[in-house]
Amino acid sequence: MLALLYDIHGNLPALEAVLTDADGQGADRWLLGGDMVPFGAWPAETLGRLRDLPHSHWIRGNTERWLVDRTDLTADDPMLEAIEACREMLGDALAQELAALPESAPVDDWGTAWHGSPVSDMRSFLPRPADDEEELLRGVEDALLVFGHTHLQFRRTSEDGTLLVNPGSVGMPLDGDPRAGYALVHDGGDIELRRVTYDHAASAAELRERFGTAPWVEIVAGRIERASAGG
Asked: What is the pLDDT of residues 1-46, one digit of tens each?
């Protein structure tokens, strides 16, 4: 059974809760869909835990890319400081390694996983079709696309018949539900979306304890607490 883990964001307690749940369901393979390490209180520890997973495929997200290439971040973007803090904790060698991960990976023999979409690691699909969905799907022949980035857990079928699956965010859901989100691909091909309770308030508190009161810390901690991008 394949577990789909996206947008962990260095939130180790959320990751541990998901790994325990997935193991109990019989997961023995892992797809790590990007945005695994930056922003949370445990970047290095999260990376170490993920490296322990057997039979895993890794792809990079925009935050792994930002560890090396920040050309799409403005100088006043608060996430720039967050990325720099994460890179300092990881070191240059690990930052380069994560930034060099592939952009996509196969999902068994019927789909492909990206971080955002085949077009971009910053543009993705939404629970309801957006105006750019046809562009994002142009040239896609897979029966299944798996993606994350928006931190919104859902599954639906596009107008052209492609199954679109966002497993949700392990470490920072933004759909109003603070439980860690992930998905399982059962051996028969059925996809199950799952949520797991963990102490999200403690994760937010630890982030503040480790990194202080910088603007990016309050943004990230607030999102972990509220499961929302809003104030």
From this structure: 999 999 999 999 999 999 999 999 999 999 999 999 999 999 999 9
**Which residues lie across from 191 on neighbouring strands?**
185
Whole-model pTM?
A: 0.96
User: What is residue 231's predicted lDDT score, i.e. its pLDDT?
Assistant: 55
Rounded to 5 degrees, what angle do the CA atoms 169, 175, 179 make?
A: 55
Q: Among the residues of 76-199, which ranges form H helices? A: 78-90, 92-99, 133-137
Predicted pLDDT at 12: 98
**How far is Cα 9 from Cα 16, in angstroms, rounded to an integer?**
13
Buried b (16+ CB within 10 A) or exposed e, 47-80: bebbeebeebbbbbbbbbbbbbebeeeeeeeebe
Using CA atoms in the order 175, 59, 207, 74, what is the torsion angle rounded to 10 degrees? -90
Residue indicated by tokens 């520890």: 45
Q: What are phi and psi of 205, to 5 degrees?
A: -65, -40
Q: For residue 224, give the DSSP letter.
A: H
Specify whether the CB–CB gap between 33 and 50 falls below 8 A.
no
Residues 45, 47: Cα–Cα separation, whole Å: 5
What is the third-level CATH fold of 2-226?
A: Purple Acid Phosphatase; chain A, domain 2 (3.60.21)
C-alpha pair distances (Å), 44 with each of 155, 200, 205 = 31, 19, 18
